[in-house]
Automatic annotation (TrEMBL):
Gene Ontology biological process terms from the UniProt entry: polysaccharide catabolic process
Protein known as: Endo-1,4-beta-xylanase 4
Lineage: superkingdom: Eukaryota
GO function term, MF aspect, one: endo-1,4-beta-xylanase activity
Annotated signal peptide: 1-16
SUPFAM superfamilies according to UniProt: (Trans)glycosidases
Pfam families linked: Glyco_hydro_10
């Protein structure tokens, strides 16, 4: 193993002397000439190796090549391999910072994050399992933020990406500006998709329905849309329960994620499928895809086409190496309007799982799109978010930055945190980080079907109420204008004035666009 390290002093900094802004950008391109280091290097001494190997050391069978350049990241002299950055603290513990697939001939950006709770001296090191390669590193940056600064960055991002100013103009029929008009604005439905998983028990459980429908705009069925639920025995499909659930949620205007068409894990595949020869497995999987997609096309807002196909490869192993790409193509042909998701676990939760680091996501999406006919495939990213350990929000943000560089929406699709005294606080921490990130468009909380709120449910309720604009009241100014910044969503505005006999109500939508929304309301 090749190891390259430098020594650091990890310490906070006074807000008055440190720039506390956060750079959400990342690059997923392997570049001939890399970009400048973020934050000018931050805490790292000799970040661009202008002073040779000062403050850096090398261990193992490889060697470091010092490259003087205006920019640089990570590069190997031959082949490709995962390179990881770790932080070793005085206790001897190693904390992973992040990982990237580094290649020869170009530079790859590794962006990661970690959290420490005290000032200390530490060593930052980079590792590769390949010892007979040259690992080139340059322009390393490390930027500290306090908890308060981190929260300020979240709030600033929310103001920028989740809100928009509205300007309501009230005029007479003749077009005269009317000052003194009374305005009341209420949100009908938020734009950001916040949902919860559900089970078949909701169909006939009034209390469960009454708990669910006022809170959430989106749902994912726990099992009821999966293949093993619909076709327990070969050739005997049963969509009775699924149909009833779809009907209920459509009636209540709650969007449904299609989870899942196929599942790449062999251990959750029906026994009868696994007993089939490869050609018959292909035929059965194609029939399954056609059956569920054609049945619910137009009823769902997303399809998890091949669930967890970075960890598992049942269909590649049984059918052909490009089986996943083929099934994405079939799904797109059957339902061309609905986004197709790549849905995986551990990318946010466990950065030591090298199968699902952001680079692996990027490569898998590129692989699927490289299949003939898939070049313009409408794909989105699902990050499950089953946090059985304490969430690392620094890592979460960096991961979202990297995947956000694909310029495709990201969802947290199955979010839950470990039960215990810290469950609610940790759930809130992750939800706030996701909601604040510009690339995230939805969160599905993975519930336990207990329709009576536990502390984690109280957190969800609190955030639902915090992330909406309601009961805004005011009066138009001398120019007949009332303005206010609101969360994106659908709204009603009620306005009244002495010149009209009764209040008037209008419906309007606030979408993510540049500049204020100019809403003109003639009497």
């Amino acid at each position: 193993m090749l190891v390259i390290l430098c020594s650091l002093l990890l310490a906070g900094c006074a807000i008055a002397t440190c720039d506390s802004s956060y750079d959400y950008s990342a690059s997923i391109q392997c570049l001939v000439e890399p970009l400048d280091p973020q934050y000018g290097g931050g805490l790292v001494g000799n970040p661009n190796f202008d002073s040779g190997l000062d403050e850096w050391s090398v261990f193992g069978g490889g060697k470091v090549v010092v490259r003087k350049s205006k920019t640089a990241w990570l590069q190997l002299d031959k082949g490709k391999d995962i390179v990881s950055a770790f932080l070793e603290i005085p206790s001897g513990q190693s904390i992973i910072v992040g990982s990237v697939i580094a290649k020869s001939g170009c530079w790859s950006m590794l962006k990661g994050g970690f959290t420490v709770h005290q000032n200390m001296k530490a060593e930052l090191y980079f590792t590769s399992k390949k010892t007979q390669v040259e690992l080139w590193i340059d322009n390393v940056s490390l930027k500290p933020f306090t908890r308060i600064e981190w929260q300020q960055q979240q709030n600033k991002s929310i103001e920028r990406v989740r809100k928009r100013k509205i300007r309501i103009h009230v005029t007479s029929k003749e077009g005269l500006k009317l000052p003194g008009a009374n305005i009341v604005v209420n949100q009908i439905r938020p734009h950001f998709q916040l949902g919860c998983s559900t089970a078949a028990t909701i169909i006939n459980h009034k209390a469960y329905q009454d708990w669910f429908t006022p809170r959430f705009t989106t749902t994912t069925f726990n099992n009821e849309m999966k293949w093993y639920y619909a076709e327990v025995y070969p050739g005997k499909e049963n969509y009775t329960v699924t149909d009833a659930m779809v009907s209920f949620f459509k009636k209540n205007r709650i969007a449904i994620r299609g989870h899942a068409i196929l599942w790449a894990a062999g251990n959750v595949t029906q026994y009868w499928v696994k007993l089939l020869p490869p050609k018959e497995i292909l035929n059965a999987a194609v029939r399954r895809t056609a059956s569920v997609v054609s049945r619910y096309s137009g009823d769902v807002i997303a399809w998890d086409v091949m669930n967890e196909n970075l960890h598992y490869s049942f269909y590649e192993d049984k059918i052909r190496p490009n089986a996943t790409a083929m099934f994405y193509q079939i799904a797109r042909a059957l339902d061309p309007r609905t986004p197709l998701f790549l849905n995986e676990y551990n990318t946010l939760e466990f950065p030591l799982d090298m199968a699902v680091i952001p680079s692996q996501y990027v490569e898998k999406i590129r692989e699927i799109r490289s299949f003939p006919g898939n070049e313009r495939l409408k794909m989105q990213i699902g990050l499950q978010g089953h946090f059985w350990r304490k969430p690392n929000v620094s890592h979460i943000r960096a991961t979202l930055d990297v995947l956000g560089a694909l310029n495709t929406p990201i969802w947290l699709t199955e979010l839950d945190t470990k039960r215990g005294p810290n469950q609610a606080a940790q759930l809130e921490e992750v939800m706030r980080e996701a909601f604040a990130h510009p690339a995230v468009e939805g969160i599905i909380v993975w519930g336990d079907n207990n329709f009576k709120n536990l502390p984690a449910g109280d957190v969800v309720d609190k955030l639902i109420n915090e992330w909406k604009t309601t009961n805004v009241t005011g009066v138009t100014d001398g120019d007949g204008v009332f303005e206010h910044k609101v969360f994106l969503g659908d709204y009603s505005v009620t306005y009244s004035h002495p010149l009209i006999p009764r209040p008037v109500t209008k419906i309007f939508s606030v979408r993510k666009e540049k500049g204020p929304l100019e809403l003109r309301l003639p009497l």
